[in-house]
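User: Predict the complex.
Assistant: Input components as received:
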Amino acid sequence: MMLSWEYPPRVIGGISPHIFFLSKHLAKQDMKVYVVTCDFPGAPAHEVIDDVEVYRIDSYKNPAPDFATWVYLMNMNMQKETTALTRKLGNEIDVFHAHDWLVANAGIGLKHVFRKPLLVTMHSTEMGRRDGLHTTTEKMIHETEAWLTYEAWKVICCSDYMISHVKYVFGLPSDKLVMVPNGVNIHNYDSVEDLKDFRGKFALPEEKIVLFVGRLVYEKGIHVLINAVPKVLNKVNAKFIIVGSGYMKEQLLNIVRSMGLEHKVLFQGFLDEPSLLKLQRCADVSVVPSLFEPFGIVALEAMAAQSPVVASDTGGLSEIIDHDVTGVKVYPNNPDSLAWGITRVLVDGYYARHLRENAYKRVQEKYDWGKIAQQTKRIYEGVLGEYSKSFWSNQSTSL
Amino acid sequence: MRVIIFSWEYPPRVVGQLSGYVSALSKALANNKVDVSVVTYDDSATGQTVESSGVKTVRVANPVKSQIGVLTWALTLNEEVERVATNIFYEAHKRIDLIEVFDWHFIPSAVTLKNAFSLPFIYSVDSVEDHRSPNQNSSYNMAIKSIEWLGFYEASAISVKSEWMKDEVVRIYNVPKEKITVLPAELSSLVKEILKIYNEVAEVKKTER
């Protein structure tokens, strides 16, 4: 049984699509999957989506003093309703799988009440999000995360980088941590539609398209890309398309204006999903210049869209990209290095094709949701094997 | 009769008069052949003890030390209360008759345990949020009131210490009068009255099964 504070149509961050695809592919592997999540206007309290049983609980809609307190109050309701549900299902639930501290209390409570193993996926940490712990709220959330990982049988992270980070911040033993990458749905990019007209809306036929997708914030390194623009244009005729928004937008626009390159850099803002998928397929190169990146799903999406990737050698990106094989790695926060990488892909069509083909193959091999679900299922089976030898398993919880 | 008592204060931790009250009451109950386990909070003196009276106690610490308020403090502590109560339940081979909860702090645990094991609970009211923080309707106070309301709604029986409090609970939380018992102050008649409530709640539980 998955516990998550978001599941479509409630989408706040990356956990929502993660649970959606993971649950769906686990169900395809003959597992009975239940998802318990917060309610959402218009979404039913119970429905079956691709064989996944989805239950939406009353997410505590009275006013709460602050976000963190709301999370704990919501957990109170989630636990109350999930206990009743689990009881109703009899002895059917073998494993509780919590995602992030947002469902910590509910996960821990359910584990003890039903005496079943608890697994947790740590998608992120408070320490990482805030770059340290500065307030009592941040410390409280951090300690809640530590408590959750302590109570969990296994802790799943999406990259080796996150494994070492989580191990360090919570002082966990290595044998408790397992790496399962995030996935990408390659079939999103299956369409064979002719994109010539669509491409024409963004760039001239003789211009190569350089694509950036991400929030316009410091840690995404968008300013590095902007500084690399003139260096690239010295060598190749290209159009830089920036998708996303953020607090740095005005500042970036001013830099572009001062360079006199408004006609070469297009700030697109947010883009609807179908258009974004098409644009990713059109891109002659996709750039991920992040300074901090726990995973780097944008790089994976570009690889699935068969667009060559240039990414900075940092965090999860370092693991996704195999230099000269599935993409180009450049020095983080270095416009010269980034311009070198972009130019290299744009001027050498043969090299670009080589990267594209390898990257697509790698995505199919390693980041396919089917394979990720398989790995996750194996973790469940391993945990249940260990659990079967514990005294908890001898006690029937049915009443 | 096997009973688990939840109280956020119990000697040696004394915050108000509830601590002494719960202590005296559990002793008296133990003397009347009730198997009593008290689950309470203490951040340092944790663990299990058996008092000379026969009352068993388990003290739990809060797993999260940094807290922004009483609400988050109570809500994280609830998981530990729930954990040890579950252990008592399994160790007693599930033969626990009921839980008695003093004030709102551990109501969430009692509700979860009720949903999980059909374990009924009695909500024993010392004070309510409306009197502790009069005329305050901030989201913080409202959240505590919502937990109190949940307790009144889910409890099998409610006990109060005065007719005035009975009227207040009925007025503020719209609780049916029949659900509330006013307890006498004198200890021996108090114990008699509480045992009567225990037996009624335990009896209903049996017939439900």
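Chain A has a mean pLDDT of 94.
Let me know if you want any component modeled separately.
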